[in-house]
């Protein structure tokens, strides 16, 4: 008996079958788990592509206008209406509006390792979420935990995980963050300080708020260049890709594209570059710009400026023989602006001298007034456009100047003269709030961008310096009107013509 037991104990025949019997469930389990992981990875990749597309579609609408979030929601809803099927889940499983959460953000943490809660708050307690359509610039789209229609976000596994105390499902949580980036390329390489910025937050306005309320309409703004401590009534220069500031002023291009989020100021001597560059738009070709024939240096189609017939300097005419668009009244040097045009009588002298008659009054509509109030007197830009539209540019003022508004000094093709050449785009900066960065020539975020109308050529402080326009003689202020701004409050002419919109994935 003992011998039989010992023989059985030492007999190894059939051991492999026992091991196989034990390992078969393990091998099958690992195979099923690997198969599930492969299916889950494939589904996640498909969902991620879909969510990326939804985030990009939503972000493309976040242009700062008042209806941007409404349009973004509509873009996502429209895409999801396509009833996209995900094959791993079988027929009938689609991605629906109820399966995703869309959150709109004003920004995201610098590090991708810093996560956001479902409320848009990061680990440092910063809340990036917002419902203000004028502030948000990013869209975060996430698959809900309950996931796809029929609850398929809780991805059903083949591996029976419940046998080992787990769930027979996996959560597929694809997420994407896309952002809207706007750059401006058609702009002169200068910025102006926001004239509506104050040290009191309760009274300070952004340039967009001031424009929307009509505070900019009909005012003359005068901006002077300073090299340090700029404030309302000042302008400064921006870094650009051109050889000279003069070319940027003349052509209306900075030589580079600026983002809405970051500008860097520029140092250096620019005597005679700002005035000679801008003045080509008035058919004045001074200094090294004499005899320019390039299309980029063409004049506006209406260059009336109250000057004697001189192509090489701004030779101001006696008031009785020619007048420029009139300056404003009640100039406030601390803000760099005048009072708005008060009434129709503001235009009497200008019209009588230059057009030999009575101002048409309410026939000249305030078409660019952002408030839509047609009872206001027309702005200078509205009168300028009225002269062009009603063939009054060719009207001749009295002796001795006999000035007309039609250009004659440009050596190139005068048929290419353009009404918009007296419009330039420039950045607007809250200079008081960003004084340290401006003086340190580090990047600042502009308050916005404005399309401005040049009222008159830029003069030298001393009239004798007009004979040497590119010399070191001090320049007078740039005189302008604001006719449009960027963002949700605007007429959107500047945005449509000058901005380049891009969307990109960030996470």
Provide an overview of this structure.
The chain folds into two domains: 38-182, no CATH class; 185-505, no CATH class. The protein is 23% helix and 14% strand. It is built from ten helices and 13 strands. The protein has helices spanning 2-10, 15-59, 68-80, 207-212, 245-251, 273-279, 348-355, 380-389, 435-440, 493-498; strands at 100-105, 138-143, 154-156, 169-171, 175-184, 190-193, 221-225, 234-237, 258-259, 423-429, 448-454, 478-485, 499-505. A six-stranded mixed barrel has the order 6-8-7-12-11-10. The protein is elongated and about 145 Å long. The relative contact order is 0.14. The model is unreliable at 87-92 and 147-153 (pLDDT under 50).
List keywords for this structure.
507 residues, alpha+beta, 2 domains, six-stranded mixed beta barrel, five-stranded antiparallel β-sheet, 10 helices, 13 strands
CA radius of gyration:
34 Å
Relative helix content: 10-25%
Looking across the biggest beta sheet, what order are the strands in? 6-8-7-12-11-10
State the domain count.
2
Question: Uncertain segments of ≥5 residues (pLDDT<50)?
Answer: 87-92, 147-153
Mean model confidence by pLDDT: 81
N-to-C span: 75 Å
Name the beta content range.
5-15%
Q: Give the number of helices.
A: 10
* Structural shape: elongated
Q: How many individual β-strands?
A: 13
Helix- and strand-based class? alpha+beta
Largest sheet: 6 strands, mixed, barrel
String of helices and strands = HHHEEEEEEHEEHEHHHEHEEHE
């Amino acid at each position: 008996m003992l011998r039989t037991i010992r023989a059985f104990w030492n007999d190894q025949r059939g051991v492999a079958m026992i091991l196989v019997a034990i390992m078969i469930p393990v091998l099958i389990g690992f195979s099923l788990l690997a198969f599930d992981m492969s299916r889950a990875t494939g589904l996640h990749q498909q969902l991620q592509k879909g969510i990326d597309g939804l985030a990009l579609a939503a972000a493309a609408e976040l242009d700062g206008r008042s209806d941007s979030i409404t349009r973004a929601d509509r873009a996502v809803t429209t895409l999801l209406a396509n009833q996209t099927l995900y094959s791993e889940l079988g027929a009938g499983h689609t991605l629906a509006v109820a399966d995703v959460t869309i959150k709109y953000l004003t920004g995201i943490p610098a590090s991708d390792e810093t996560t956001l809660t479902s409320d848009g708050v990061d680990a440092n307690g910063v809340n990036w979420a917002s419902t203000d359509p004028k502030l948000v610039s990013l869209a975060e789209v996430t698959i809900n935990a309950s996931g796809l229609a029929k609850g398929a976000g809780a991805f059903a596994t083949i591996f029976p995980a419940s046998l080992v105390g787990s769930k027979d499902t996996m959560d597929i949580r694809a997420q994407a963050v896309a952002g809207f980036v706007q750059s401006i390329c058609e702009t002169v390489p200068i910025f102006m300080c926001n004239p509506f910025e104050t040290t009191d937050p309760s009274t300070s306005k952004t340039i967009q708020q001031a424009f929307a309320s009509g505070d900019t309409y009909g005012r003359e703004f005068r901006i002077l260049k300073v090299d340090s401590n700029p404030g309302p009534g000042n302008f400064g220069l921006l870094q650009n890709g051109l050889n000279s500031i003069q070319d940027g002023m003349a052509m209306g291009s900075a030589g580079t594209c600026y983002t809405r989020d970051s500008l860097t100021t520029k140092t250096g001597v620019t005597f005679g570059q700002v005035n000679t560059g801008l003045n080509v738009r008035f058919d004045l070709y001074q200094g090294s710009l004499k005899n320019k024939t390039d299309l980029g240096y063409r004049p506006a189609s209406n260059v009336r400026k109250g000057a004697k017939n001189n192509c090489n300097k701004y030779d101001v005419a006696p008031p009785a023989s020619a007048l420029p668009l009139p300056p404003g009244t009640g100039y406030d040097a601390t803000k760099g602006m005048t009072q708005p045009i008060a009434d129709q009588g503001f235009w009497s002298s200008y019209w009588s001298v230059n057009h030999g008659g009575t101002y048409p009054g309410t026939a000249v509509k305030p078409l660019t007034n952002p408030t839509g109030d047609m009872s206001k007197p027309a702005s200078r830009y509205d009168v300028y456009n009225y002269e062009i539209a009603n063939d009054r540019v060719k009207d001749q003022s009295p002796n001795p100047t006999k000035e007309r508004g039609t250009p004659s000094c440009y050596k190139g093709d005068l048929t290419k003269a353009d009404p918009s050449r007296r419009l330039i785009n420039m950045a607007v900066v809250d200079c008081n709030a960003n004084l340290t960065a401006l003086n340190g020539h580090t990047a600042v975020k502009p308050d916005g961008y404005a399309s401005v109308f040049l009222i008159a050529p830029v003069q030298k402080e001393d009239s004798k310096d007009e004979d040497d326009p590119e010399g070191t003689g001090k320049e007078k202020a740039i005189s302008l009107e604001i006719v449009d701004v960027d963002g949700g409050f605007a007429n959107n002419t500047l945005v449509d013509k000058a901005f380049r919109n891009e969307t990109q994935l960030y996470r």
